[in-house]
Amino acid sequence: MITPRDEMKAALECREPQHTVPLWDLHFHCWNQASGRHFIVGGEFAQLSAAEQERAVDWDAELMVSVIDRLGLAGVTIPDNYWEIAPGAPTYYWLPRDGRLALARTLQRLAGDRVLIVSSAGGIIGMPGAGNYEAFCYKLFDAPEEIDEQARRSLTNGLADAQRLRDAGVDAVYTGADLADNHGPFFNPAQMERFVFPYMRQWAAGVKALGLYAITHTDGDIMPILDQVASSGIHALQAIDPVAGMDMRRVKQQVGGRICLCGNVDCGLLVTGPEQAIYDLTRDLVLDCKDGGGFVLGASNAVFHETPSSTTWPWCAPGAITAITQLQRDDSGRAIGAHGSHSNATAACSPRFCRMEGASETIAFWNQDVAMP
């Protein structure tokens, strides 16, 4: 039987999935909303005793698996190591290193046969954070050898972390270094060739040697460096940042077949809505991009825990979205073209979600056995 994990692996290898476009978010924070239970993470987890942390890992893993199976997720990302979104303000989705590894092992045991387990692992440098932005920029010109050393250290540490994660059951790792902002690449071409691309190529090769999938996440407008990223040896690129003007269709036209493309649904829109806009955007993206494979549907960045349940569920759980990800096939077994399979189509999915019927795309939500929060 083809599992969501199998579909995710096919996409990462630039093959066309057998049945559905795989679903994976870089970070899915809405475990509380999606399960009706409390997900233990961050400072709350760190303050527990060792025995309590062990029980919390089991609790979190079982909660995650229930949501993974319910939503048909093809990939799931474990929480990051500790990092701060602003000085003194830690991100929501983090665990201590031992907790991360324990969670990966438990998820692999409970659901490793049907979902691909993903983790961040460092590996390359990107734009600096607010805390050291000015100092980093000065070093680029006044002390570039220090940036060289930082890049070497990031590569070494990233590959060591990838090996630990591999041994704990992780299947794919990503390096989350933003290379651009909304206006274009942060580094000039000479800096990219000195501080970024050589290390990206080494990181991709090292990750592949470990038997893992190598994914690069970067926000921003990377169109000027897209070909170099696609030639680095990575399996996939995640984000395809719509706020920066990145369009999945254009990106797939340029580098499709060379790397898998993941994301492009505006994560900000998931917070603000409205629901119909989320559905329309996602529908059009899937129908335009699913042909030929090498495409993973997901938010452009994290599905933040602040995302209201009214928009979390239409994004992640609706059978309307699941239905249009189905790769309908003709009598020869060939996938029908995106728009060709869309008009006047009738597609149904599990009754616990919903059904999409006819050209009017009427959506009727069923929740026979889903406890909605």
What secondary-structure arrangement, pairings included, does this model have?
Blueprint lengths: L3 H9 L18 H5 L6 H5 L3 H22 L3 E3 L6 E3 L2 E2 L6 H15 L4 E5 L12 H10 L1 H25 L3 E5 L3 E2 L2 E2 L3 H21 L3 E5 L8 H5 L5 E4 L8 H8 L4 E6 L1 H6 L2 H15 L5 E5 L9 H8 L2 H6 L21 E3 L5 E4 L4 E4 L8
Parallel strand pairs: 1-4, 4-5, 5-8, 8-9, 9-10, 10-11
Antiparallel strand pairs: 2-3, 6-7, 12-13, 13-14
Care to describe what's here?
It is a single chain. With 373 residues, this protein is α/β, with parallel strands linked by helices. The chain has one domain (4-336): TIM Barrel, CATH 3.20.20.210. Helix content is 43%, strand content 14%. It has 14 helices and 14 strands. It has helices spanning 4-12, 31-35, 42-46, 50-71, 97-111, 133-142, 144-168, 189-209, 226-230, 248-255, 267-272, 275-289, 309-316, 319-324, and strands spanning 75-77, 84-86, 89-90, 116-120, 172-176, 180-181, 184-185, 213-217, 236-239, 260-265, 295-299, 346-348, 354-357, 362-365. The chain has a seven-stranded parallel beta sheet with strand order 1-4-5-8-9-10-11, sandwiched between helices. Helix 9 links the parallel strand 8 (213-217) and strand 9. Helix 4 (50-71) crosses helix 5, helix 6 crosses helix 7 (144-168) and helix 7 (144-168) packs parallel to helix 8 (189-209). The two termini are 32 Å apart. 45% of the residues are buried. Mean pLDDT is 86; it is low at 337-373.
